[in-house]
Structure formats: C-alpha cells, structure tokens
Amino acid sequence: MFQKEEECIEQAEELLSSLLRGTVAEKPFGDLLDVARKLLRQSRRLVTMGDRMQAQLSSLNDELNHMARTDALTGLDNRRQFMEVARKELSRSRRTGKPFSLLLIDADHFKSINDTWGHDVGDRVLRDIASLLNGAVRAHDMPARIGGEEFAVLLPETDCREAALLAERIRLAMERHIMLVEQAAVRFSVCIGCTTGSGQEKGLDLEVMLKRADVALYAAKKNGRNRVERYPGPDCLPDCPVAAAERVRHQGEA
C-alpha cells in the first residue's frame, strides 16, 4: 500500500535535484514535497490504526459469537448451538441414511447437593460433569449443557448399540468420580436417556428424537437413577404418558 505514492515522491525528488536546483521553483516545489511526505506518513498511521481497529472488531465479533453458542459456566456448547447442529445432523442422516443418536443426561439429586453443600459446590459439580463428558465422548461427538443440571450429547453416525455403550461409559465415569469439598468426598451420579434414529424414518424430526430421549430419561429416574435407559426398548415404562403417546402415534402411522 502507498507504493505508487512513494514512487511519485521519489520521481519528484529526482526532478527537483536535476532540473529545478537553483531555480526560483526549487523552494515552492520542495515545500510541496514536504507536504506530500507528511500526508503520506499520516495516511500510513491512519491505515495502521484502521487495521488495528478492524482486528479488534473481528476479535470482539468472534468473542460475541462464542458467547452466543457457549454455556458460560461449563464451557460446553449451549442449547441453541446444540439444536442447530443436531438439526444439521438430522438433515445429513436424511441424505445418507445413516443413523445418529442422542443422549439426555440429568444429574441425580442435584437439588440435594445444592441444599447440602451450597450453590458454589453445585456449580463445581456441573463443571465436573462437563469435564467428564468431554473426556468420555469421541472427537466427533457434541456434548452440551441444555439447561440447569441437564446435558445432552449428539452422536453422529452412531447406532443404538454404540450409543448405549458410550452412555454406559459416561455413567461409569460419573459414578467413579470423587470431588473433594472441605476434605469431604462428594460423589454424584447421572441418569441417561438414549435414543437412535435415522433421517429415513417417516415423520422423524429433532423434537421427536428429544421426546424419545426424554422418555428414556424418565424411565432411568423411575427405575432407580444412576442408570442408562434406551428408547425404544424394554426398559421404557409402559405407564409413562409420553411413551404411551408415542406408541399410539406410531401405531397410527403403521
């Protein structure tokens, strides 16, 4: 930038040296060159300032985008980002026919932890759950905090068996984890609802997938907590109203 302007000034200096030296035009022409040099220096400073401002604005924009899709407490993706990526995965499944799975995860007796140890410890539990999730899932999976003590994991190109195995690995990681609080050992566990679907399935959308995972999560809580339940599967409770509604809907589609 400004290369042409610099070349023009250099040519003018050569003209001043060769043709105007000692003439009446030497001084005014020299003054004009001084003004041109000052303007060029000021232009460079303005461009540098503009580049810095642009870099700062770009960095701020990146930070705002990160904040918009990230849970501030745990550093995981938030519900909005999870839903956006999950819808894209459903669209991809429709194109490829490959299955994908969802996990819904809820911390057991979280209110009791807050009541016993305080909200600071409750926040530590949530951060530890996030850390354990990151350590248990695969590189292409997507863990997220979707609200309160509830988490979700998107498992691309994952069938029901793989999803159940991964869910059990997550459950065990939580069960075995020990958090020290004032020299006391604090343990926690989670319920996990697991479901698998394919874009080839008639009438399937993300809301249906989440409802199925929630049915399985309800079953895990009902059956004693600290466990994994799958939907569809024999462990889904027949008296669960959401499960019953799902069965009626699918019977109507058959």
Could you explain the architecture of this structure?
With 254 residues, this protein is α+β, with helices and mostly antiparallel strands. The protein has two domains: 3-69; 79-253, Alpha-Beta Plaits (2-Layer Sandwich), CATH 3.30.70.270. Helix content is 59%, strand content 16%. The protein contains eight helices and seven strands, in the order H-H-H-E-H-H-E-E-H-E-E-E-H-E-H. It has helices at 3-18, 26-69, 79-96, 110-117, 119-136, 160-176, 206-222, 241-253; strands at residues 99-107, 142-147, 150-155, 179-181, 184-186, 190-198, 228-231. The strands form two sheets. Strands 2-3-1-6-7 form a five-stranded mixed beta sheet, sandwiched between helices. Strands 4-5 form a two-stranded antiparallel sheet. A hairpin with a 2-residue loop joins strand 2 (142-147) and strand 3 (150-155).
Summary?
With 254 residues, the protein is an alpha+beta fold. It has 8 helices and 7 strands.
Provide the gyration radius in Å. 32 Å
Average pLDDT across residues? 83
* Global morphology: elongated
The CATH topology of the largest domain: Alpha-Beta Plaits
Instruction: Tell me the count of domains.
Output: 2
Binned, the helix content reads 55-70%
Number of helices: 8
Major sheet attributes:
5 strands, mixed
Judged by helices, strands and strand pairing, the structural class is: alpha+beta
CATH second-level architecture of the largest domain: 2-Layer Sandwich
Q: Name the strands of the widest sheet in spatial order.
A: 2-3-1-6-7
Order of helices and strands: HHHEHHEEHEEEHEH
Number of strands: 7
Q: What is the CA-CA span between the terminal residues?
A: 69 Å
**Unreliable spans:** 234-254
CATH class of the largest domain: Alpha Beta
β-strand amount? 15-25%
CATH homology-level superfamily of the largest domain: Reverse transcriptase/Diguanylate cyclase domain
GO molecular function: diguanylate cyclase activity
Organism: Desulfovibrio psychrotolerans
Domain GGDEF: 98-233
Protein name: diguanylate cyclase
